[in-house]
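Lab notebook, bench 4. Continuing the backlog of folding jobs that were queued last week. Each job is logged with the same field layout so the records can be merged later without manual cleanup. Today's entry covers Transcriptional regulator, a 438-residue chain. Filled in by technician R.K.

JOB TYPE: sequence-to-structure
TARGET: Transcriptional regulator
LENGTH: 438
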Amino acid sequence: MATKHERILQYINSLPVGEKISVRQIAKEINVSEGTAYRAIKEAENKGYVSTIERVGTIRIETKKKENFEKLTYAEVVNIVDGHVLGGRAGLHKTLNKFVIGAMKIEAMMRYTGAGNLLIVGNRTDAHYFALEAGAAVLITGGFDTDESVKKLADELELPIISTSYDTFTVGTMINRAIYDQLIKKEIVQVEDILTPFEKTICLSPFETVATWYRLNNETGHGRYPVIDQNNKVLGMVTAKDIMGHTHSTQIEKIMTKNPVTVIGKTSVASAAQMMVWEGIEVLPVVDQQNKLQGMISRQDVLKALQVIQRQPQIGEKLDDIVTNQFVTIDDESKRSNIFRCEVSPQMTNHLGTISYGVFTTLVTEAVNRYLRAQKKGDIIVENITIYFIKPVQMEAILEIQPKILEVGRKFGKVEIEAYSDGMVVGKAMMMVQLIER
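JOB STATUS: finished
OUTPUT FIELD FOLLOWS
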């Protein structure tokens, strides 16, 4: 039976896009306390079901798919620019395709403005009116208002008019930054994106017997099953290793592995991969905050996801990417090792104008990662890194990083790294890594 919290989430998820909700309304509708309703609405916001806007309220929005992450709703724009809504509240749930800066004559501006756009402009009432007629929402900068006739038209067309105190350049930068952050989120694949859902997961009850395990094994070919109670809470895992030596009449609860390693849906796939390698397990139950089973992921699921990440188009560039994109790979004379060369840019320095400790760590990690990939050892997860010393490396200096394998096995590796500048050793580190086969 679903809890009050789950019932509220199901109710919110069933509402039509654009529906406005409140704590008091939910409490009355589901017959729960306002505190319970408030907590459920906050979780719905985290899940992307709703968006809460100051002075407007909470609105059901379209749940975004991973491939559509780079688009924003008008409700999100209001929060990004600290704006307030002058009209067209009913359209806040809609998604904008692009934004247009209205720094030109009306005729020229309208050639670039169409349905699903957001026109960013100052107190030009005629521009507000024409943009709405073209199917675009309006963001008024400088804290200005607009005419009542324009607000009325916005309400009729369900296209938001938003006012913000920021100037046009700042607003454009803020929205660009938000879209860029969304692109980075798109790259970070989470467990909830790849799991086999609960409805398709085969589970066992603690009161079932080993005979049931054998039957399921013959039917599905799988040997690992989560064990759950009547409320779908995970109690344990049972595998082929657990049932060995036991009779068919033995109850599952007597042989299962209790308190198994689990993850939540928001866990990154990279973190899940590390757990699987470290714990030596093939499958992971995915649970919610109440330890209720949401689904399962396997090692094969994780490896496929890691491969997809590398092929994703249109993703945001993180600071690590900015730092390591300057890397040039050079084979040394012996052909036994690689040297990774880069220039120390202003972005890579600390307040003293020398390479920062964090950037040096990033460069060392990336060098080892690329080196082991070239050696067909797969991707790495850093288990431990020790930086023995790092000398000041000035801005615009050329840094050469040379990793050398000390030990390597099927799952683990030990690598020594030396960094040179002008032929002098300026840094030395040791790294222990876990290897993930691609």
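OBSERVATION: The radius of gyration is 28 Å.
SIGNED: R.K.
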